[in-house]
């Protein structure tokens, strides 16, 4: 992307949004196949870009390292080691990255569970949390620490320019 757009994508909210959207589509496509071709419009030109899992994994290396550190801290707090886990459940968007799945497989010695969608797992967890809050006499509230490797923000469309905008609230 830097070769196509240079650093101007940092200052252009519309282009930045298209690059984020391109990255999301790439992540989802590479979850099920080794390479993908996607189109990215920069200015008045549309570029057809091939992305392989290897290239994408190299670009996502820092994210994978951060995820590994978060998991390691959680395991340390629970006085557990990677190989003591009975299984791993993929939860949330980052778990769609093949590199995350490979990391978990390598560190635990077994493949992650695939019986539930990572996005459905988030919804089920939220539903369970809501149930426990509503029925607090049935079960004690667990202590939950929320950690994320993603930014939290708001996206919207400017009414006049029709450009997609994003404001990061928590980094």
Notable traits:
two-stranded antiparallel sheet, 171 residues, 4 strands, alpha+beta, 46% helix, 7 helices
Quick synopsis:
The chain is about 45% helix and about 15% strand. The protein has seven helices and four strands.
Describe the structure.
- This protein is an alpha+beta fold and 171 residues long.
- Helix content is 46%, strand content 17%.
- It is built from 7 helices and 4 strands; from the N terminus they run H-H-H-E-E-H-H-H-H-E-E.
- Strand 3 (152-157) and strand 4 form a beta hairpin.
- The radius of gyration is 19 Å and the shape is globular.
- The two termini are 22 Å apart.
Report the count of strand segments.
Answer: 4
Please give the share of residues in helix.
40-55%
- Look at the structure and give the mean pLDDT: 77
Tell me the strand order in the biggest sheet.
1-2
What structural class do helix, strand and pairing data support?
alpha+beta
Order of helices and strands: HHHEEHHHHEE
Report the end-to-end length measured between terminal Cα atoms: 22 Å
What coarse outline follows from CA principal-axis ratios? globular
Note the total helix count: 7
Major sheet description: 2 strands, antiparallel
Strand content: 15-25%
Radius of gyration: 19 Å
Return residue spans where pLDDT drops below 50 for at least 5 consecutive residues.
none
Secondary-structure map:
Blueprint: H1 2-5, H2 8-11, H3 13-30, E1 35-42, E2 45-52, H4 53-59, H5 61-77, H6 98-108, H7 118-134, E3 152-157, E4 164-170
Antiparallel strand pairs: 1-2, 3-4
């Amino acid at each position: 992307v830097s070769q196509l757009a240079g650093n101007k994508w940092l200052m252009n909210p519309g282009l930045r949004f298209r690059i984020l959207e391109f990255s999301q589509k790439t992540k989802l496509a590479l979850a099920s196949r080794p390479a993908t071709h996607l189109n990215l419009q920069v200015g008045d030109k549309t570029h057809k870009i091939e992305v392989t899992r290897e290239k994408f994994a190299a670009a996502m290396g820092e994210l994978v390292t951060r995820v590994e550190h978060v998991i390691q801290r959680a395991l340390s707090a629970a006085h557990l080691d990677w190989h003591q886990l009975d299984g791993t459940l993929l939860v949330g968007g980052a778990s769609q990255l093949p590199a995350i799945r490979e990391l978990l497989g390598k560190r635990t010695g077994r493949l992650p569970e695939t019986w539930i969608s990572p996005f459905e797992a988030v919804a089920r967890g939220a539903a369970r949390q809501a149930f426990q809050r509503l029925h607090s006499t049935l079960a004690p509230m667990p202590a939950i620490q929320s950690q994320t490797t993603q930014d939290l923000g708001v996206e919207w469309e400017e009414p006049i320019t029709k450009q997609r905008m994003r404001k990061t609230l928590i980094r």
